[in-house]
Amino acid sequence: MQNRFNIPREVINKKELLQPGVLSCQGCGASLAMKLALMGLGERTVVVIPASCWGIIVGIWPYSTLTLPVIHAPFATAAVTASGIRAAFDIRGEKNVVVMAWAGDGGTFDIGIQSLSGAAERNDDILYVCYDNEAYMNTGIQRSSATPAGAWTSTTPIGAVKEEPKKDLEKIMQGHNIPYIATASVAYPDDVIEKFKKARGIKGTRFIHLLSPCPPGWRIDSAKSIQVTRMATQAKVFPIYEIANGKYKINVRPERSLSVKEYLKVQGRFRQIPENMVAAAQQLADRKWEELAQLAGND
Predict the structure, then answer these.
(1) DSSP label of 270
(2) Cα gap 188→208, rounded to integer Å
(3) How many CB atoms lie within 10 A of CB 72?
(4) How far is the C-alpha of 50 from the C-alpha of 5, rounded, in Å?
(5) 224: Cα within 13 Å, side-chain hemisphere
(6) The model's pTM
(7) Rounded to the nearest 5 degrees, what angle is found at the Cα of 14, between the Cα atoms of 9 and 15?
């Protein structure tokens, strides 16, 4: 039997690995992201968490909201810490354990990209997940290279907005020739679960870029965090696709025509964005979608 999200019931009924009492904000996408990821991965998983929102969400030692082993790592070392744990399991002959690095965009796009690149170049057998809320939310909404052009952050000069577009991390990871790269969004839970199930069965470095809304940082109503996140995909700002052994596949196609402006205007962080930047954001989204459709063979 399946539910309305088309998720197999045997997956839904698995033991709950994320317990009540998470220390996240209302409407936080990061908590839901972990819940969905673990539904796909199962119990034989070790989670490596660098400095990030999830470093707080998981709870204060000796308590934890996860029923799995959790290793806290310095900000820049999520990937290399996961690689070391993987090597230890290999020495012990335990091959059926997934070692997952779970980092935010600051710890991935910026501070952690060196160790991530090293692990990917070696094709270490780890799963690296970037739950992306598009700023350093845990420390006060500072700008990261994942912050979109036109957005306000707490480090933006008064009267200004971020001028540079978001870094294209998928292209960077593709340059490492790893076996699996995917984007996902908490607004599409069935897709998230299936991608983590798939990633569990792949050897080598797997990278999943997971869009995770932050109501305080995005300046949105916490009750509408999933709705707004879905709009990112419908407006083609955050396409959902995967690259398996170099082959592209689009997993979610927009259900209706939604402009980038419609997506931006529902978020307070874009309140100061000038019209010329809105037009540029639309052009960028259209161009990247056309490139993606060509790479996927318009399937």
Answers:
(1) G
(2) 14
(3) 15
(4) 31
(5) 11
(6) 0.94
(7) 155
Q: What is the pLDDT along the chain (299 residues), one digit of tens a residue?
A: 345 455 555 555 467 899 888 899 999 999 999 999 999 999 999 999 999 999 999 998 888 999 999 999 999 999 999 999 999 999 999 999 999 999 999 999 999 999 999 999 999 999 999 999 999 999 999 999 999 999 999 998 988 999 999 999 999 999 999 999 999 999 999 999 999 999 999 999 999 999 999 999 999 999 999 999 999 999 999 999 999 999 999 999 998 889 999 999 999 999 999 999 999 999 999 999 999 999 999 65
Domains of the chain: 9-295 (3.40.50.970)
**Nearest partner of 32 among 13, 48, 53, judged by Cα:** 53
* Residue 249 identity: K
Residue with tokens 């335990």: 94
Q: Angle at CA 242, nearest 5°, toward 214 and 105?
A: 30
Cα–Cα distance, 229 to 219 (Å, whole number): 13
Cα separation, 186 vs 190, whole angstroms: 9
CA 286 to chain centre: 22
Q: Tokens 């470095």 identify what position?
A: 205
